[in-house]
Automatic annotation (TrEMBL):
Domain FUZ/MON1/HPS1 first Longin span(s) in chain numbering: 9-132
InterPro entries, per the entry: FUZ/MON1/HPS1_longin_1, FUZ/MON1/HPS1_longin_2, FUZ/MON1/HPS1_longin_3, Fuzzy
Name of this chain's protein: Fuzzy planar cell polarity protein
Keyword Plastid recorded: no
Any one GO BP annotation for this protein: vesicle-mediated transport
Keywords tagged on the record: Cytoplasm, Cytoskeleton
Cellular localization per UniProt: Cytoplasm, Cytoskeleton
Organism, scientific name: Culter alburnus
Amino acid sequence: MLQAETLQLLCLTASSGVPLFSRGSTKQLPFSIIGSLNGVHMFGAGHGAQLSSCETDRGSRVVWGVFQESLMLIAVSGSGGSAISELQLRRLLENVWNCMVMILGQDELANIRNVERLKRELRSCYRLIDMLLERVSDDQGFMGDLTQCADCLLSSNSSLLQEALDSFAQAAESEFGCLLVHGRVAQATEKWWSRLTSQEVVVLSILVHSLSGASSCDYPVFLPQGSPTVAIRLLSFQLLPGVHVCILCGPKPSLYKAENELVSRFWSTLVENLRICMEQADRSTLPPSVSLRWDVQALLLINRESRRAVTVCPRVRGGAPAEAVPLLSSGRRLELLRLFYTFAMTRYFTSQETSVSPASPTSEDFSQGFTHVPVQCYLVTDECKCYGLQSPQHQLFLLMDLSVPTFALRTVATQTLSAITAATGF
């Protein structure tokens, strides 16, 4: 009987089922269960059936994924993690695979020559994998692992920082540059957004965030979609604690030249601007010019064209009346936001990234056969009211107080979307 208490990730060879690693829960699954999970998948494949997921009567969920017909990843969410959806687990497997490709390259994973050697090499991926496991249910407001959109910070002095980043990247003979503040993209060059896939931007941001202890780094990376077999240099520099600038480049410049000449030339005069950006990030991912209603508990705004996203989870209520109920904990609000995003994307909203087949068990029966695509939905729970809005350019997922009348949800959502886009151009 599967009794895992928390989230656990398994990696095995697809052909023989040899375990390569297990991450997540401190209490590892017994080998007999790991063998059973692999065996039932192989049995189905041998009879022409593809087993992708299942759920036990005790609330545990298992999702399988085979990549390049070489490695099998299995995500196990025990009864203690019953709130983790199938979509979240599926995205977790995709992100873990992308991280392994980014560190080791696709050839090393697709053509296994020595299992013991691969086990040792995979250890270099453990920190990234652990960060992905933590982000499934963290309270820091990162949603990129689920939405596959870059977590962004909309700074108030964006034009000045953008100009500095473009000049820095050009001097380093690169078209790919990015400025991250506490793991969120504050600014990026045009090619960073247009040439890299959203999945690559997400895993690169996580990688740079994981290197926060180093003042500078010269790291070879493979782009999972753009360059899975040829390594590219990732140069990363810490400008301030929590603030990093990075570029993707070729053999030039050297790490010494970039750190001692270029960084000081383009960023030394902007230290105060970077501090202001950090202070803003500690308060909100939105600039001070954007004022939200006091009854907004949390929101997720996605730009569908650029695959960027902003998550807001207010710490205090601004201008709330005395009779207003206290805010839910930030962890609980972010959990509800993830659940509502999954609810809306698997049942009502559709996109190239999250489309589900008509036979998918997560799709609603009534929506099948209709020619139109829903553009708005709402949900009323015991803790909050949720509203989702989809336009050709944006998706907005909003959590509001129970005190907001249901008939007013649409108005609040459209006003919130207009206020953010008008002030930031997002």
